[in-house]
Amino acid sequence: MKKIKKVLGLGLAISLLAMNLSACGTPAANNDKFYIGGIGPVTGGAAVYGQHVKIGAEIAVKEINEAGGINGKLIEFKFEDDEHDQEKSVNAYNSLKDWGMKILMGTVTSGPCTAVSAETGKDKMFQLTPSGSSPDVLQFGTTFQVCFSDPNQGLKSAQYIGEHDLATKVAVIYDSSDIYSSGIYEKFATEAKNQNIEIVAAEAFSQDSKSDFAVQIQKAKDAGAELVFLPIYYEEATLILTQAADVDYKPIFFGCDGLDGILTVKNFDTSLAEGVMLLTPFAATAEDEATKDFVAKFKEASGGEIPNQFAADAYDAIYIIKEALEKAGATPDMKISELNDAIQNAITEITFDGLTGAGMTWSETGEVNKEPKAVIIEDGIYVPFE
Q1: CA–CA dist 260, 180 (Å, integer)
Q2: What average pLDDT is seen over the chain?
Q3: How many CA atoms lie within 13 A of 285 on its CB side?
Q4: What is the pLDDT of residue 3?
Q5: Is the pLDDT of residue 386 over 80?
Q6: Would the N or C end of the chain have less CB density within 10 A of its end CB?
Q7: Cα–Cα distance between 172 and 185 in angstroms, integer?
């Protein structure tokens, strides 16, 4: 009898353990929902990117679930903070895997996204990054992009400046220690030759020297640069604008998606950003109904903030995943690798119209194809530049 009780007790313990593991969100728990994770900086210096991505994705998930889900199945979504740190991003990825994630909507910034893409590549998990723009994120075979890649941002920026006759003498201030910044600059410099643009000064800085830009600004001014191209993030851009104003240097300042967020920096005199232009696929001031509806929902969810392009990229990303899953006829009980294969096959066959572009398509390498747009800051808001 004692042996029987011990066997029964052991069986009960195993059953309870299995139930507990299932309840904690292991893959056994997610066979009736699509478990989608997200990773990005919610705290730290790049927090505005991750915060907006998180809210944008959550709005899309809520809409989809209220409309009946994907192929009749709901989405379970969870977002983890990585503080724009590669090691923390990989830790966040592993945490989401333990939770039960089978698809990743992320990672938000390029360095962490590259580190996580190595992991999704090993695990054969599909990843759609809203804003990880480095081509390095694509090298592992399971990551696709909603945003332009860094080289394409450099290419399109040079073409936009040339085609709109914004300037012929251009200076560049870039971060040589950052793959995002240096990648954009390299392609910009190559394409500038085709656009009758003379780069009169190309001034680098690094993460160890990103507070004093007096030398770079003076060289651009002395060279007669009519436009200063800033393929950098908004924190450093606010310092450059402030220090340029101190020496009464007023060229056109032109940036890429890294400048989105410049109007939110604490203690920055936003009047200095008047006339700044940036290449972006989304303007919150656009008058189409889809944009106005999204902006209203974002303001409600965020306590009144205006969404940046990263929020719109994430909103589109969730809907892109939905459309690919529906085209593939995918179900939540499929294995991670099966979902990856299904989505990759489907995403190269769909054409997607979203907040960040009409007629978006994807190559097998993961790059998105869409037309760029530019905005100019006027009266403290982004206005489409025609």
Answers
A1: 14
A2: 91
A3: 13
A4: 45
A5: no
A6: N
A7: 8
Q: Work out the pLDDT band at 12, boundaries 50, 70, 90.
A: very low
Residues 6+ apart with CB under 8 A from 377: 262, 263, 273, 274, 275, 276, 277, 383
In this prediction the pTM is 0.79
Six-digit token string for 54: 């998180």
Say yes or no to pLDDT of 221 above 90. yes
SS3 assignment for the chain: CHHHHHHHHHHHHHHHHHHHHHHCCCHHHCCCEEEEEEEECCCCCCHHHHHHHHHHHHHHHHHHHHCCCECCEEEEEEEEECCCCHHHHHHHHHHHHHHCCCEEECCCCHHHHHHHHHHHHHHCCEEEECCCCCHHHHCCCCEEECCCCHHHHHHHHHHHHHHCCCCCEEEEEEECCCHHHHHHHHHHHHHHHHHCCEEEEEEEECCCCCCCCHHHHHHHHHCCCCEEEECCCHHHHHHHHHHHHHCCCCCEEEECHHHCCHHHCCCCCHHHHCCCEEECCCCCCCCCHHHHHHHHHHHHHHCCCCCCHHHHHHHHHHHHHHHHHHHHCCCCCCCHHHHHHHHHHHHCCCCEEECCEEEEEECCCCCEECCCCEEEEECCEEEECC
Separation CA 291–CA 307 (nearest Å): 10
Query: pLDDT tens for residues 150-202?
Result: 888 999 999 999 999 999 999 999 999 988 899 999 999 999 999 999 999 99
Distance, in Å, from the CA atom of 39 to the CA atom of 107, rounded to the nearest integer, reads 5
pLDDT at 17: 43
Domains (range + CATH), the chain: 31-148+289-371 (3.40.50.2300), 151-280 (3.40.50.2300)
pLDDT higher than 50, residue 99: yes
Q: Determine the Cα–Cα distance for residues 141 and 125; give it in Å rounded to an integer.
A: 10
CA-based nearest residue to 259, from 7, 18, 49:
49
70 neighbors 326 (Cβ within 8 angstroms): yes
Task: Summarize pLDDT for 330-371 with one digit per residue, the tens.
Answer: 999 999 999 999 999 999 999 999 999 999 999 999 999 987
User: In the beta sheet, which residues pair with residue 198?
Assistant: 169
Distance CA 24, CA 28 (A): 10
